[in-house]
């Protein structure tokens, strides 16, 4: 798919550029574009030259820089688009090539240009770096944007809408976080803000060190290279009542990184009795003590890092024993894990970083860096930074294994694929780091020993049950850093955090990257649980994709394709096609549809209401369905087949009661009559119908012994709050609800709430009645339009004020009861109906007002009362009736596609009159020679201007129509240039007076093709600069130019359009309002041409 760029480059205003000269293409499935990309790559003039050569050039040309080539036979070729030596943001792409070098698929976006295209250097880019920084700092201060250090600035081009704009990318550290500001190069105005990546040597003597770590939740942990080697740690207790520290031993003989120490990862350098927390792959800085050098300590023969005063102080302040020890051990473990996996994947690589393989560098980490808050951790493209936690209030030191794994993985991603920190690839970035935390803990679990392996904390963190899904802490991210027994993010059901999405159908661009990342966490989990992959294999899949074909700016669908394309590396799981199917099915289960998917996706609406799963199927016409299979996720499978005795509409909308506290993997399959199979998935977690928490009450009342809901009496216990959930109370959405109670409540307040989203909580938006004064011992109300059918909770508060100080609700001097309600929306009778509106040209707009049950897929049949014209659309397109007087009977028939035979019809008669014709001409033929159009050109490209033959001269009517063979592409800017007949130079000067211009050139495009030219169809601007005096060889004429946008039409269509051009002296009507009015002096010319869709 291509996108034309209307080049209004900041700093380049006034440069005329052909709209065809440069275009942006999305490469996915655009096979006709791939040869053009390869041709550009082969053209030596377009392959990126050295940066200093570009600096010397006065103009900039489009070129592609090879970022890396990786995979068997160079399958994944990564490129960045540049203008000169300046990158174009959002234009990075990957070509997937076969063994012969032919492109099989493309990912990302690329710019293509016409031969010879170039642009000059934007003026702001010629400023010195110092001047650019000064102007940026001044603008940031003017705009009130706080920053704590001088911004780092680089040059770039950015696509802003349809404009290619020169920008500066400013990496700015604010008091709260680190961001990239995209700044207009001309005005230094901030166009948008993007988060930076965030989230939670000489030969030396290396030895195995160790020491105390852990926190209040995990207990004291002794990182030990050998049993009983860390004696100070093992004997330490902050409080005599504390449990003894646990000993953590780790070995992995197959790991090569720290093979001298059997894979034990707490490796330090030792010189003259001083141990420094640094090795070739990890450097740990105690940021509170020294912001540049690695932390060090006096080490005896066992190399233990233990300073009791420091340990006591840190635990007293932060309820964590030693952040630097935690960070050094955990980072060593993570880096060894990556080194082990990557060297297995790329066995021939000899260096740390290779464009034909992976890149792994030393991880430098600042422990105790609270620059962006004490409860944060982040990777800033250079360092990993860990906050101290908020004194154990909610977070411990951010150096636990989950956090270190996550942030170190951001570094690995940055060194390899360079995924963004915003957008869909930002979500993938976050998800990869979350997934890595699960994989690293699994790696630890396979190789850990010592008393820590039997500790309560380790066993709780390791819990992975097939029944207790909510308690599976192994699939929680961030449990080890949080005070509460909860996770920061989840894998089994990402939505448990209240924000993340379980399925990509729930994606919204306004979501945070952490929320969108839920679909990848869920995919990883399902690959393990439903496809029986090991955690290690599943992580290797994501890691291979990150190295091979993840790239900056990629979409979720791109990521899906990249993951499927790694199948050939996992043939121990099955054949190549079988592994592809496993990955594909897993991605489909979370709504990720890759471009190379072999599955057809079924679109349907699904939901769970506590313990009731339901779905609605409306995306496939009922008469095209051969069979439906419903797998409810609790072992129950239901089927419907065409020609069975069951009506299909029972399977177009259906629900089922499932077990509570269960992970429901719902699957819906549709076999169409052409034997195409469509499959859709949703995953839910079922829960009991009850409030998540009781309301907070002050001076609770308990006088009521019963209430009545819709004539159904409900006995109550004499207590301030109770849940009556044994019976279900029906609420018919079409009628008023009536709640009655004792007359003693008259004059007091009543509040009624309905838990519409079925989350067990009552929000302010779910109030049906809000603190209403009771009269006549009852309250009546209608359910809101947003209320959906199904089981729900209704809360009734009687007595005092009900408020929302927290999610549980608060009431004073009230008695509160929660009831189990069943909202019913009975089907209303089928009624056909419509209204209509008549336009001036006998075009009629029909609006369908029929009352139908959309689930049963209504079918509409229109008859418009002339020439056998009709439509089957719900709301038909505007109907063009004959341009004569007449009466027409319009009929609408509505029936259902479920073979029920139900139908209804509605007819109306409409009366139309012949519209007034848009006739135009000069009032006095004797004035026709005074001023007229003597030459006219039409063009969309300055290189191809079309002279309108016959535009010279005029006639006594002052009007002429030209039927041409001209053709233009849709959506382009059509320019109309004219020259008048020869006029006296003084006359021209008077007519073009800037203070009182007395001539006007206007163009209209009959976009609706009604042979009428309305105000809205005229050119938008009419500036004095559009008119000039053109004198040649002693003859002077008026030269004028206007432009108008051509309409968009479908690519396979072509349509005839008429453009009206009017040159008039002394115009009297408003601009654009004289398209069908006669005139005294001037000329009108109509030009007919063809517009082709593109």
Q: Helix amount, in percent?
A: 10-25%
Q: Structural class from helices and strands?
A: alpha+beta
- CATH class value of the largest domain: Alpha Beta
Terminal-residue CA separation: 10 Å
Low-confidence stretches: 3-20, 44-56, 197-203
Query: How many separate domains make up the residues?
Result: 8
Overall radius of gyration: 36 Å
Spatially, the strands of the biggest sheet line up as: 1-2-7-6-5-4
Number of helical runs? 16
Strand segment tally = 63
Global morphology? globular
Overall pLDDT level: 90
Q: Find the CATH topology of the largest domain.
A: Elastase, domain 1
| Proportion of beta-strand residues | 25-35%
CATH architecture of the largest domain: Roll
Sketch the major β-sheet. Answer: 6 strands, antiparallel
Brief write-up:
With 1094 residues, the chain is an alpha+beta fold.
Word description of this protein:
- The chain has 1094 residues and is an alpha+beta fold.
- The chain contains 16 helices and 63 strands.
- The strands form 16 sheets. A six-stranded antiparallel beta sheet has the order 1-2-7-6-5-4. A five-stranded mixed beta sheet has the order 22-14-15-16-26.
- α6 packs across α7, α7 crosses α8 and α8 packs across α12.
- It is globular, with a radius of gyration of 36 Å.
- The protein starts with a strand and ends with a strand.
- The N terminus is likely disordered.
SSE inventory with pairings:
Blueprint: E1 2-4, E2 22-26, H1 34-42, H2 51-56, E3 59-60, E4 62-70, E5 76-83, E6 86-97, E7 103-113, E8 119-120, H3 129-142, E9 152-160, E10 163-173, E11 178-184, E12 190-195, E13 206-208, E14 210-215, E15 219-224, H4 231-234, E16 246-250, E17 267-271, E18 274-276, E19 278-279, E20 282-286, E21 296-298, E22 304-305, H5 308-318, H6 323-345, E23 363-367, E24 377-379, E25 384-386, H7 401-416, H8 423-447, E26 448-449, H9 456-461, E27 476-477, E28 489-490, H10 513-516, H11 518-529, H12 535-548, H13 556-564, H14 576-589, E29 605-609, E30 612-616, E31 625-631, E32 637-641, H15 649-652, E33 653-657, E34 663-672, E35 677-685, E36 696-698, E37 706-709, E38 712-715, E39 721-732, E40 737-740, E41 749-754, E42 767-773, E43 778-781, E44 790-799, E45 802-803, E46 810-812, E47 815-824, E48 834-838, E49 843-848, E50 858-863, E51 870-871, E52 879-880, E53 886-896, E54 903-912, E55 933-941, E56 944-947, E57 959-969, E58 973-980, H16 985-991, E59 999-1005, E60 1027-1032, E61 1035-1045, E62 1054-1065, E63 1082-1092
Parallel strand pairs: 14-22, 15-16, 20-23, 23-25, 36-46, 39-47, 57-63
Antiparallel strand pairs: 1-2, 2-7, 3-8, 4-5, 5-6, 6-7, 9-10, 10-11, 11-12, 13-17, 14-15, 16-26, 17-18, 18-21, 19-20, 24-25, 27-28, 29-30, 30-33, 31-32, 31-34, 34-35, 37-38, 37-40, 40-43, 41-42, 41-44, 44-47, 45-46, 48-49, 49-52, 50-51, 50-53, 53-54, 55-56, 55-58, 58-61, 59-62, 60-61, 62-63
Helix pairs in contact: 6-7, 7-8, 8-11, 8-12, 11-14
């Amino acid at each position: 798919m291509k996108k034309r760029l209307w080049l209004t480059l900041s700093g380049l205003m006034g440069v005329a550029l052909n709209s065809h000269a440069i275009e942006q293409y999305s490469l996915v499935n655009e096979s006709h574009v791939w040869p053009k990309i390869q041709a550009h790559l082969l053209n030596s003039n377009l392959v990126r030259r050295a940066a200093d050569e570009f600096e010397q050039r006065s103009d900039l040309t489009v070129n592609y820089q090879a970022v890396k080539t990786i995979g068997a036979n160079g399958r994944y070729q990564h490129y960045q688009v540049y203008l000169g030596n300046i990158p174009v943001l959002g234009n990075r792409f990957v070509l997937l090539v076969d063994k012969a070098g032919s492109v099989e698929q493309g990912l990302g976006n690329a710019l293509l240009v016409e031969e010879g295209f170039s642009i000059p250097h934007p003026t702001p880019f010629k400023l010195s770096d110092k001047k650019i920084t000064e102007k940026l700092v001044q603008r940031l201060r003017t705009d009130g944007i706080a920053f704590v250090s001088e911004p780092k600035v680089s040059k770039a081009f950015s696509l802003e809408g349809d404009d290619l704009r020169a920008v500066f990318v400013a990496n700015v550290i604010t008091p709260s976080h680190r961001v990239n500001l995209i700044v207009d190069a001309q005005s230094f105005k901030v166009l948008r803000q993007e988060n930076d990546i965030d989230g939670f040597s000489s030969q030396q003597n290396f030895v195995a060190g160790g020491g105390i770590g852990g926190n209040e939740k995990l207990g004291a942990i002794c990182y030990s290279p050998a049993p009983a080697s860390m004696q100070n740690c093992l004997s330490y207790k902050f409080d005599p009542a504390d449990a003894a520290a646990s000993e953590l031993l780790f070995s992995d003989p197959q790991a090569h990184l720290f093979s001298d120490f059997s894979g034990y990862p707490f490796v330090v350098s030792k010189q003259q009795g001083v141990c420094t927390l640094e090795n070739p792959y990890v450097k740990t800085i105690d940021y509170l003590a020294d912001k540049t050098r690695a932390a060090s300590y006096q080490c005896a023969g066992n190399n233990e890092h233990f300073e009791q005063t420091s340990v006591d102080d840190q635990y007293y302040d932060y309820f964590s024993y030693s952040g630097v020890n935690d960070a050094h051990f955990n980072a060593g473990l993570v880096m060894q894990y990556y080194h082990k996996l990557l060297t297995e994947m790329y066995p021939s690589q000899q260096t740390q970083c290779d464009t034909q393989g992976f890149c792994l560098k030393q991880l430098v980490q600042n422990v105790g860096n609270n620059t962006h808050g004490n409860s944060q951790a982040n990777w800033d493209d250079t360092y990993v930074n860990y906050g101290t936690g908020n004194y154990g209030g909610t977070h411990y030191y951010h150096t636990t294994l989950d956090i270190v794994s996550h942030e170190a993985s951001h570094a690995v991603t940055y060194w390899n694929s360079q995924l963004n920190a915003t957008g869909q690839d930002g979500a993938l970035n976050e998800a990869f780091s979350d997934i890595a935390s699960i994989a690293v803990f699994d790696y630890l679990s396979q190789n850990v020993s010592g008393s820590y392996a039997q500790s309560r904390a380790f066993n709780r963190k390791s819990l992975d049950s097939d029944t207790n899904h909510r308690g599976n802490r192994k699939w929680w991210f961030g449990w080890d850093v949080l005070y509460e027994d909860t996770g920061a993010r989840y894998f089994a059901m990402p939505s448990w955090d209240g924000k993340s999405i379980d399925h990509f159908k729930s994606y919204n661009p306004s979501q945070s990257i952490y929320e969108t990342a839920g679909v990848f966490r869920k995919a990883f989990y399902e690959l393990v649980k439903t496809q029986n992959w090991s955690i290690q294999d599943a992580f290797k899949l994501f890691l291979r994709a990150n190295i091979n074909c993840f790239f900056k700016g990629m979409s979720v669908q791109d990521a899906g394709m990249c993951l499927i394309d790694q199948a050939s590396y996992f043939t121990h799981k099955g054949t190549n096609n079988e592994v592809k199917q496993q990955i594909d099915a897993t991605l489909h289960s979370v709504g990720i549809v890759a471009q190379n998917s072999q599955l057809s996706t079924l679109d349907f609406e699904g939901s769970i209401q506590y313990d009731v799963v339901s779905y609605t199927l409306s995306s496939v016409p009922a008469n095209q369905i051969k069979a439906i299979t419903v797998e409810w996720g609790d072992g129950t499978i239901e089927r419907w087949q065409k020609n069975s005795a069951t009506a299909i509409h029972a399977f177009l909308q259906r629900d089922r009661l499932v077990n509570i506290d269960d992970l429901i993997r719902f699957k819906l399959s549709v076999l169409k009559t052409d034997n195409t199979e469509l499959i859709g998935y949703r995953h839910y977690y079922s829960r009991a119908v009850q409030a998540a928490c009781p309301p907070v009450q002050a001076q609770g009342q308990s006088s009521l012994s019963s209430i009545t809901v819709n004539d159904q009496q409900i006995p109550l216990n004499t207590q301030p709050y109770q849940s009556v959930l044994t019976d279900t109370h029906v609420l018919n959405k079409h009628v008023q609800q009536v709640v009655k109670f004792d007359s003693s409540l008259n004059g007091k307040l009543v509040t009624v709430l309905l838990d519409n989203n079925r989350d067990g909580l009552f929000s302010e938006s779910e109030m049906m009645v809000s603190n209403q004064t009771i009269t006549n011992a009852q309250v009546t109300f209608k359910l809101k339009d947003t209320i959906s059918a199904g089981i729900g909770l209704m809360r009734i508060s009687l007595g005092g004020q009900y408020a929302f100080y927290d999610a549980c609700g608060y009431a004073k001097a009230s008695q509160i009861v929660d009831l189990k309600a069943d909202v019913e929306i009975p089907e209303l009778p089928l009624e056909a109906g419509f209204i209509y509106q008549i336009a001036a040209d006998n075009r009629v707009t029909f609006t369908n007002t029929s009352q139908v049950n959309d689930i049963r897929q209504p079918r509409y049949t229109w008859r418009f009362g002339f020439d056998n014209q009709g439509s089957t659309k719900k709301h038909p397109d505007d109907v063009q009736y004959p341009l004569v007087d007449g009466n027409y009977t319009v009929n609408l028939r509505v029936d259902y596609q479920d073979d029920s035979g139900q139908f209804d019809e509605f007819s109306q008669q409409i009366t139309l009159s012949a519209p007034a014709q848009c006739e135009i001409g000069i009032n006095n033929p004797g004035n026709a020679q005074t001023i007229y159009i003597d030459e006219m050109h039409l063009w969309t490209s300055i290189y191809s201007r079309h002279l309108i033959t016959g535009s010279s001269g005029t006639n006594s009517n002052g009007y002429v129509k030209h039927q041409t063979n001209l053709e233009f592409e849709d959506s382009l800017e059509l320019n109309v240039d004219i020259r008048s007949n020869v006029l006296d130079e003084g006359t021209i000067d008077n007519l073009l007076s800037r203070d009182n211009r007395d001539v006007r050139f206007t163009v209209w495009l009959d976009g609706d093709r009604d042979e009428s030219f309305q105000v809205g169809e005229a050119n938008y601007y009419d500036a004095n600069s559009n008119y000039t005096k053109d004198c040649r060889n002693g003859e002077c004429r008026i030269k004028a130019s206007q432009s108008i946008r051509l309409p968009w039409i479908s690519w396979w269509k072509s349509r005839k359009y008429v453009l009206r051009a009017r040159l008039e002296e002394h115009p009297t009507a408003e601009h654009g309002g004289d398209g069908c009015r006669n005139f005294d002096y001037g000329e009108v010319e109509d030009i007919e041409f063809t517009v082709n869709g593109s």
